[in-house]
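Deliverable D4.2, example record:
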Amino acid sequence: MTKLGSWFVVDKADLVAGISVAGLMLPEAVAYAGIAGLPPHRAILAGIAGCLIYTIFGRSRFAIISPTSSSAAILAATLAVVPGDVTVKTGLATVAVALAGALFVVAALLRLGGITGFISRPVLRGFALGLAITIILHQLPILVGVPVQGSNIFTYAAALFGAILQWNPISVAVGVVALTALLLLKRIPSIPGAFLVLAVGIFASYLFGLEAHGVKLVGTIEILPQWPSLPDAGWTSYSRLVQFTVPLVLILFAESWGTMRALALRYGETLEVNRELGALGAANIASALVQGMPVGAGFSAGFASEAAGAKTRATTVFAAIGLAILIACAGPLVALLPEPVLAAVVIAALTHALDPSPILRLRRLHRDFYVALGAAIGVLIFGVLNGMLLAIALSLAAMMHRLASPYVARLGRLGDSHNFVDVSRHDEASETAGIAVWRPGETLFFGNADTIFGEILSRSHSEAGMRAVVLSLEESFDLDSTAMDALMEFDGAMRRTGIRLQFARVHDRVRDLMTVAGVADVANRCSFSVDDAVAAVKSTLEASPKS
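Output generated by the structure prediction step:
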């Protein structure tokens, strides 16, 4: 173990892990560049720049900041709807990366790390499944050696299997052997499977002259970094690019934070979400400066780093250096790499996302199954970009549905204690005669306040002998103006019917707001506990018995 300054400590395991990860980064970079429709060197430079810059600003020891399958797919979908020729679109890709980096930095400065909460995990799982199926399907023509076109995934699949007689059997054999080897080597995490398959593929290409048998090769990768410049595109192109950069940032950060957080939790480590936002922003800005692609912490590279035994962030540096050396020294050899091997690497890297068990678990839990399924189907039917927007909409819709139709619990005293629990779940809980205790299961806001108060009012009127209602507001840390107005209207309606309303477990902010809004006798009608509220109501009722 060696110290290099004060910012990280180098372990020999990091060197081994870095080399292993570099062997995975190269084929993935070339493949993801193909997904985005960009030259391979843009993904390679992006991986080198992203890793080096993240090491300075980030804190995850497993995160490998490089192009990802999801960001490549969304970038491809974005460029497809932006007008312009190939030169303009490649320039706009650089602008999109720079915009993504700027948005990350702004979000970090504004401490908006909580935005990931707006994309729920079930939606991410569904989106990942749909995206994995889409990308794998688009790798199959490369594997079988037949170009295929299709307006959507169904016509694409139909065209692919409709051309089965034109498949190149040598290309298919190379791809299947490579994929089988990768899947088998996955069972031995200590072995850099992608690197070995890459080397064997290059050797087989040279030994058997695969190009002469119709197998496409990667060809020469020219690393020609240029200073970025704004493309000669109109206002329409730039405006549409800005609109579609937001979904790119959302999915890039959701995927990156999901990878970082999952690996950190596995080892009891903590990460600061806004710091990671800034680190991703710096990495993407650096990628834009070398005319690279969007970068983030992808699932496959992150978990490969863990499996290879990474100890510190030095692994990221060694991965970047290893990738640079690999390209510099083995460029002519990489040119011999068969494209079916690249397709196999991408497919193998995404097989983990095809596991349906997380979504099936949601069905067993009776929670969010159709949300996850809808996100997956949305990607398959409407494409990556629109599927991403649909996934976000599903997250918000699921949240709004839950908040807008909360469960309102009727509480009763548990034995002789001071505790009040839901009477529908605890048969031993007893209600107090003439007093109903209600507790909304969600915070009160403009979307559910009228519904909640209407339900309590209706059920209070339907019970004979009802003299008082205790409303527990423990779930409401604050109220918006609509919820406050609804509460005051509810208070007035209860007063007109002769039912006393007492509030329990009112937070200080809500209590202050009630005072400013003009709720009558706030000090005496707000209790710190349900037991205190019931006692206060009993005392008032005994002092003024109902005639």
